TrEMBL record:
InterPro entries per record: AAA+_ATPase, ABC1_TM_dom, ABC1_TM_sf, ABC_transporter-like_ATP-bd, ABC_transporter-like_CS, P-loop_NTPase, Type_1_exporter
Localization terms from the record: Cell membrane
UniProt keyword terms in alphabetical order: ATP-binding, Hydrolase, Membrane, Nucleotide-binding, Transmembrane, Transmembrane helix
Claim: Transcription is one of the keywords in the record: no
EC number(s) recorded for this UniProt protein: 3.6.3.-
Transmembrane annotation, as ranges: 40-58, 78-97, 160-180, 186-205, 268-293
PROSITE patterns linked to this entry: ABC_TM1F, ABC_TRANSPORTER_1, ABC_TRANSPORTER_2
Domain ABC transporter: 363-596
EC top class named in words: hydrolase
Organism: Clostridium oryzae
GO cellular component: plasma membrane
Protein name from the UniProt record: Putative multidrug export ATP-binding/permease protein
Alphabetized Gene3D superfamilies for the sequence: ABC transporter type 1, transmembrane domain (1.20.1560.10), P-loop containing nucleotide triphosphate hydrolases (3.40.50.300)
Amino acid sequence: MAESIETDKLEPEEEVLLENFRRNENHTLITLLGLYKGHYLKLFFSIVFFAVKHFPVWVLPIVTSNIINAATNGDRNAVNVIIINVIVILVMVLQNIPSNYIHTILYAKAIRSIERDLRSSLVRKLQQLSIAYHNEMQSGRLQSKIMRDVEQIENLSSQIFISILSIILNITVALGVVIFKSLTVFLFFIATIPVAVLIIVTFRGKIKQYNTDYRREMEETSVRVMEMVELIPVTRAHGLEKQETEKMDHQLKNVAKKGLKLDIIQSYFSSVSWVAFQAFQIICLGFTGYLAVKKYITVGEVVMYQTYFGTIVGQVSSVITLLPTIAKGLESVNSIGDILLCHDIENNRRKKKVKNVTGEIIFRNVDFQYKDGELPVLKNLNFTITPGETIAFVGASGAGKSTILNLAVGFFYATEGQVLIDGQNIKSLNLQSYRSHIAVVPQNAILFSDTIRENIIYGTDNISDEELHEIIKAANLEELIESLPDGLDTKLTEHGRNFSGGQRQRICIARAFVRNPKILILDEATSALDSISEKQIQESIEKLVKNRTTLVVAHRLSTIRNADRIAVIGNGGLQEFGTYDELMEKKGEFYRLKKLQM
């Protein structure tokens, strides 16, 4: 086995994202802001143009006050004052169009870039996470995190750079103008802040908890929906539509209950806030009216103060309205962090990169126990497979046959002992490079929605039409391809359901041929097929296994007669090991299993 040391490096964007999540693991808001590292300059200018486009909103109360005062005072220059103020506000209103465009371009590019990077990082991390992790984590939850949670973060980011930014600037400008005009009125405005803080603190915990409960229930629903869709043929075949519908209705009721609790607390929160701030606004109107009567301020200033106070009240109310969106977004940051910070990964960094494989596999004193298992599946397992040899594994369900294949592929590591590939401990190898020399044909054909051609050449981009034709012939697909109007360019529906089980399996075998593997893994590749399809698959497999180290798990013992040796697995170890004829003559466990199938 030729080898070299590989030092895997993450993509720069991914490294920045992961480091941000690690460093600020317990500070969700800081984590969110850290996502935009590298975009800060762009966002700064976006804020500048956002402020410029909002000038009309801030200047209009002053212009209104000037016009009212000019009209009520009746000065000689009143008309000129009115004209100048009208021109000023019109110019400011017109500049909103270009300023808004530049602001939107700058912030939207940043947000969409982060949205893409987050999804890309999640996809990359899912490819790195161990098979054990994927076995435990339901695919519906992962889909929800990639789609729904990233969307929630994108929504929160949009709110930050539109609504929240607007709120902060509007309140700052309003208070700035008021403190410049009247310290007395400013102090009255400031008195509203403790009320806002008290309301937010009172409701924040409940809203966060209800948002968490609702997200988890939505993830569970996503899982249930995917399972329901997958099971529709089974459900229909057994007439269980009503039971399945009732089961989904129960789950949907749970979602509705969680959603209703969230809606009620949010509505109550908004109602209390609105009443409190409307009361303050009415008091403000009376207070400034009183000041005008006492000649401390002008009539125009009453309108100005009322407008600014209305702005502050409206902005604080907006903050309160946005809290549910903020809570959802921050909860989604935590949800995504669950994946990005997960340490259950297949780490290939600084491991030996495999250049060539001869195909020798040795199990030396191997024990294996699943993480949550109470008893070991394999105990002190020892055997050697020489290059080019075909070994069949048989035994009762749960004996550990598929576990042996998973250990040989590197999906799991031995709890004790060693699995050696060409004399090298599999734990020391870069598994990605090692697996480039392996092909796996599983029990259930795994195909994707694309053409037959793309399914066959999956992961290979340097195969000629002549080579592809030879592979199709070897996989007994020639007749099928010729019978299709679009031939190799025929599209497969989801999971290839527009083809029979045998046809799907032969496409998988053709995919294995394309890889020209040194080690071939066949996990009950014919167990779910009829006898005619099984014969065709068996013929294809016999061509495929030539000159390759092959590990076969077989349910039908008649299909492994030509194996070089047969390993009977049971009681956590190797019960018998020999050729078909040797084991039949021995009349031991293999003989008993064979007789049961006759």
